[in-house]
Amino acid sequence: APEQAARMKKLQEQEKRQKVEFRKRMEQEVSQFIQATGEPRRRFQPMNKIERSILHDVAEVAGLTSFSFGDDEDSRYVMVFKKEFAPSDEELEAYRRGEEWDPARAEERRRLRELAAQQEEAELERGPAPPGPPNDYKDKYRHLIGSEAAKAAARTMEANKAYGC
């Protein structure tokens, strides 16, 4: 038991040192990123939950915006953005879907959404559609029943007294 306790303590100290070293390394990378003028965002390699939380903390202290992306625990990564280049909701959704952000494609989607909204607004201005089916069943089956068949059948109908009509 004392040996196990000593081993556990040693492992905990080693883990703590690794976390401190990782934090220092991330602080250096984030400071390099801040000093790089042409880089609006930086994507880091996939990392575990603890490392991601350390990186998020470092980014927050540095005044940056950070987000995690990826589906499962092994492939989650962090992207850090400079405040002046903060991502839009559409950009974040693209990263969440695993796609690369394309501003031209986003502009096209926005234009299509606006067009659809204008069409919907125009339909609302026209008012509701008249009630009833969109087409007349008589037109569909005219070749079977003819145009005067229903009227002629109604004129010749006689009550069947056996059924109480």
Automatic annotation (TrEMBL):
Residues 20-83 form the R3H domain. Residues 99-114 have a biased composition (Basic and acidic residues). Pfam families: R3H. It comes from the Eukaryota. One of its GO terms (molecular function) is nucleic acid binding. Residues 99-140 are annotated as: Disordered. This is SPAG7 protein. It comes from Acrocephalus arundinaceus (Great reed-warbler).
